[in-house]
Structures are given as structure tokens and as C-alpha cells.
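Saturday, quiet lab. Running sequence design on the C-alpha cells for the scaffold JK sent over.
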């Protein structure tokens, strides 16, 4: 996950889109994240997506950078 390494807001936006896509195979994504030792990053992204969906707002650029630092 490029986002976890760089904190790139465009990468985060791509993650948001992909995680919300109906065509994504969540089980395969989970397996791949485990294999790449990125499960924590994926969980953090999912949690962030859920939070922003609940509030109906988009993240500010500084929020994206803070999240990347925590990963």
C-alpha cells in the first residue's frame, strides 16, 4: 500500500474508491494484506473510511498525513 509508505493523498483517495467498490474481493484483499504484513494498515484505512462515511465528510489533507504517520 503506497499510502502507508508515503502518506500520499492521491493514494489514499484511490484506497477509498477501491475499498468502496462492490467488485473488490475483500477476502483476497485480506489475504494479500496479511502476506505483505499490511493488515494493520488495511484495518486503519477501513476504519477511516467507515468514520468518514458515517460523518459524510471528506478528510482534510492534514488528516491524511497524520494517518500515514501513525501507520
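Result came back. Writing it out in full:
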Amino acid at each position: 500500500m503506497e499510502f502507508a509508505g508515503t502518506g500520499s493523498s492521491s493514494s489514499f483517495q484511490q484506497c477509498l474508491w477501491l475499498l468502496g467498490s462492490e467488485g473488490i474481493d475483500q477476502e483476497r484483499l485480506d489475504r494479500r494484506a496479511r502476506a505483505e504484513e499490511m493488515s494493520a494498515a488495511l484495518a486503519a484505512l477501513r476504519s477511516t473510511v467507515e468514520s468518514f462515511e458515517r460523518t459524510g465528510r471528506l478528510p482534510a489533507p492534514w488528516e491524511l498525513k497524520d494517518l500515514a504517520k501513525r501507520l
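Notes for JK: Helices lie at 2-6, 9-20, 26-35, 39-55, 61-70. Residues 2-70 form one domain. Ask whether to fix the surface positions before the next round.
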